[in-house]
Amino acid sequence: MEKHRAIPDGYMKVGELAKKMGVTVRTLQYYDKEGLLSPSTESEGGFRLYTDKDMVKLIQIVTMKQLGFSLNGIKQRLVSLDTPADMVHVLTEHEASIREKIETLSESLQAIGALKAEVIQMKTMDFKKYADILICLQMKDENYWVIKHMDEDVMEHFRNYFDEDSASAFLEKLGRLGAEAAQLHREGVSPESEKGQIFAKVVWETIQVATNGDATLISKFAESLEKIESLAEEQRETVTTSHDFIRAALDAYFGRKV
User: Fold this and answer.
1) pLDDT tens digit string along 49-77?
2) Which of 57, 114, 134, 253 could form a disulfide with 200 if both were Cys (CB 3.0 to 4.6 A apart)?
3) If residue 30 lies in a helix (H) or strand (E), which one and from where to where?
4) Is 190 helix (H, G, I), strand (E, B) or coil?
5) Is the pTM of this model over 0.90?
6) Whole-angstrom Cα distance, residue 44 to residue 26?
7) 137-175 pLDDT, tens per residue?
8) Pairing label, strands 12-13, 41-42
9) How many CB atoms lie within 10 A of CB 45?
């Protein structure tokens, strides 16, 4: 009887809380050590005692952990839960985090679908190229078609030459140059004009930097960009227009340099 009287009404021991929440006693001890969740009191017998309020706080911690927050991030986001407004704030935060998680998962699903479509079109197993495409898709780069058609010697050079940030920047620049070429074409700008030649100079300098001026790599890179036959139909017209303008501008650029 004395043992039972040592646990006041409305309190539970650490083992009971752990069982209700599906966590281990060791986890609760760790959260206490890290300052995330400490027992509300101790019994006369030295038992660590928790309340329903502590359990709600633990639910906060477990939920945020499942959403991918670090323990430090969780600690910064915990609120007192003393009023209904506090609870509304917590629920609103969790709602926003879950929506963000859903959005991220949706983007990942789309990326996997895009990769699947690319793999279906490939004739042989090429794990290096699959990895390159996956990385490109993770960076949300819509120009992964470039990688699919890229010569292997060029890709090997790029793997050694670029890190993740510079590769992303390079692919982004290729996309911008392609879009700019299409825009110049729509505006009726001649590839041989001053504006067209300024653009050609930028394109050539970009290629020179990316290939270290290696003539063989430049040739293979150019050949790779010719391979657009398997692009999605909605991309085909824009990419073909961009490529034609770039090629005409570079032809004129080199003609002037000779």
Assistant:
1) 999 888 888 888 888 887 777 888 788 77
2) 253
3) helix 25-33
4) coil
5) no
6) 22
7) 555 555 555 555 566 676 676 667 777 677 667 777 877
8) unpaired
9) 11
Inter-CA distances, 190 with 200, 206, 222, Å: 11, 21, 21
Residue 149, both tokens: 């058609």
Cα distances (angstroms) measured from residue 73 to each of 18, 76, 168, 220, 237: 22, 5, 28, 48, 47
- On the 0-12 / 13-18 / 19+ scale of CB atoms within 10 A, 221 is buried
Do the Cβ atoms of 149 and 227 come closer than 8 Å? yes
The distance of Cα 197 from the centroid of its chain, to the nearest Å, equals 36
* Residue showing tokens 């906060």: 60
Report whether 54 contacts 37 (CB < 8 A).
yes
Give which of 202, 193, 185, 181 is closest to 246, Cα–Cα.
181
DSSP track, 104-169: HHHHHHHHHHHHHHHHHH-SS--HHHHHHHHHHHHTT-TTTHHHHH--HHHHHHHHHH--HHHHHH
